[in-house]
Specification:
117 residues; mainly alpha
Length: 117
């Protein structure tokens, strides 16, 4: 009996999701509010994933090409998502500090007794 109840629930969920996907997709072009568009897009994506409806390979490639194009455009303008960090200058003090840290680490390891003792 429980099997049939689970099957009925799954069928009802699937039918509800199948009903809502086209309704939300129809609503998406009519809204200009960015928050509403983001919410609708996220919900459409979620329902499609749950229904097993995936993008075609060509659509996925087109989206990747568009992301790369936008990234290159931002890069040409000098706007990158993560600006490149300049490495810290190498000075005698920095080298000496690093050596002191390594020496302290090795002394700490040598001071610890081996495992099992």
């Amino acid at each position: 009996m429980v099997f049939y109840e689970h099957e009925a629930v799954e069928r009802a969920l699937r039918e509800t999701r199948e009903k809502w996907v086209p309704l939300l997709e129809g609503r998406l072009p009519t809204t200009d509010h960015p928050d509403e568009r983001a919410m609708l897009t996220a919900e459409i994506r979620r329902l499609r994933r749950l229904l097993g409806i995936f993008q075609t390979e060509e659509a996925r490639r087109a989206a990747s090409r568009e992301r790369v194009r936008r990234h290159r455009e931002r890069k040409q303008q000098g706007n990158v998502l993560r600006p490149r960090k300049e490495p810290p200058p190498v000075t005698a003090e920095a080298i000496l500090d690093e050596l002191k840290q390594q020496l302290a680490f090795h002394r700490e390891i040598e001071a610890k007794p081996p495992d099992g003792q």
